[in-house]
Design a protein that fits this description.
Number of helices: 9
Largest sheet: 7 strands, parallel
Order of helices and strands: EHEEEHEHHEHEEHEHEHEEH
CATH superfamily of the largest domain: NAD(P)-binding Rossmann-like Domain
CATH architecture of the largest domain: 3-Layer(aba) Sandwich
CATH topology of the largest domain: Rossmann fold
Distance between the termini: 27 Å
Number of domains: 2
Radius of gyration: 21 Å
Number of strands: 12
Oligomer: single chain
Mean pLDDT: 97
Strand content: 15-25%
Bound molecules: NADPH dihydro-nicotinamide-adenine-dinucleotide phosphate
């Protein structure tokens, strides 16, 4: 089969030798204007999608597909598969645990004190004193939920459909979940119904001095509302990995805010060593004429 690799963020020179070794009978190419059977895409150069009518599968190299879906040139009728990369899932849970523990053990506040040479202890909480709310209990949210529960945190999770996960209280009603939460982790896909979900109304429902961790997409957070909540003291800290405009512009008030910790969309990077097997699995399915795994539901938008 002919397989196109097109990405402005993922490095072809890194991926192609791994892909070629895993799929020796297939022909890989980058960016040329010729037809293909499968396209492997993440942030493809402008005009790429318009050329993919009739392709058997577009395989995303990322877990989030909001950018591909938002592109008006997406070729209607071509199936789109998400990449469910075990290395990326593990990395995301590590990032979530790191932020939850940073806040839970007051390290955010101790860092601020250190800058003032100040020696003062804060009250200790047990993990079981804290409820961590997770928006989205999909591939990423459910793994983070399981690992937080294993550390002894109470875990609540919000999804469209109810879930049965050991140690996780499942909610489909956000207003019922938020008042229980000391920390809120956003791991939702960005869709019209989740855009702006971390807003003033919802932040006000959290327990006082909570933390917010957004590792999903910038569009989930209403930044003005978040800053107001931090400035009022209601929100204790915000860990932000993703932004509406990336890189985050130097003029953004988020950079210098003492209540905000910023990471550069690095909570979980695609890990070729674990992702290749998943891509191979879907390419082989296409070759055999079978339905690929992890297809996006275009109506739901994720
Ligand atoms: P999944 O599609 O596996 O899970 C999505 C979850 O969100 C599901 O539980 C789903 O509910 C729930 N959901 C979707 N819409 C709604 C809604 N309107 N109301 C309530 N719940 C909703 O996604 P993943 O876990 O794989 O990934 C989540 C997001 O993480 C990605 O879309 C991407 O944007 C982001 N991401 C960020 C990275 C980073 O480095 N910062 C890296 C990788 C991903 P249900 O189960 O009922 O369908």
């Amino acid at each position: 089969m002919d397989i196109l690799f097109a990405s402005e963020t993922e490095k072809a020179e890194f991926w192609l030798p791994l892909l070629q070794r895993a799929l020796p009978q297939d022909r890989f190419f980058v960016g040329e204007e010729r037809s293909c059977d499968v396209a492997l895409l993440a942030t493809p150069p402008a005009g790429t999608l318009a050329r993919l009518k009739g392709v058997k599968l577009i395989q995303s190299l990322w877990m989030g597909v909001d950018k591909l879906l938002a592109d008006p040139e997406y070729p209607r009728g071509v199936p789109l598969a998400r990449l469910i990369d075990p290395g990326m899932v593990a990395a995301m849970s590590e990032s979530v645990l790191a932020h939850v523990l940073d806040w839970h053990r007051h390290h955010d506040r101790y860092r601020a004190q250190q800058a003032r040479s100040e020696w003062r202890r804060f009250k200790q909480y047990l993990a079981s004193d804290r409820t961590i709310g997770i928006l989205g209990l999909g591939e990423l949210g459910s793994d983070a939920a399981r690992k937080l529960a294993a550390l002894g945190f109470r875990v609540a999770g919000y999804s469209r459909r109810p879930k049965q996960l050991a140690g996780v209280q499942s909610f489909t009603d956000l207003d019922a979940m938020l008042p229980l939460c000391n920390a809120l982790v956003c791991l939702l896909p960005l869709t019209p119904s989740t855009r702006g979900i971390v807003n003033g109304k919802n932040l006000a429902l959290l327990k006082p001095h909570s933390c917010v961790i957004n590792v999903a997409r910038g569009g989930h957070v209403v930044v003005g509302d978040l800053l107001k909540s931090l400035d009022s003291g209601h929100l204790g800290h915000a860990y932000l990995d993703v932004f509406d405009s990336e890189p985050l512009p130097p003029a953004s008030p988020l950079w210098k805010h003492p209540g905000v910790t910023i990471t550069p969309h690095s909570a979980a990077l695609t890990e070729p060593r674990t992702a290749i097997a998943k891509i191979v699995e879907n390419v082989e399915r296409v070759r055999r004429g079978e339905t690929p795994l992890y297809l996006v539901d275009f109506d739901a938008g994720y």
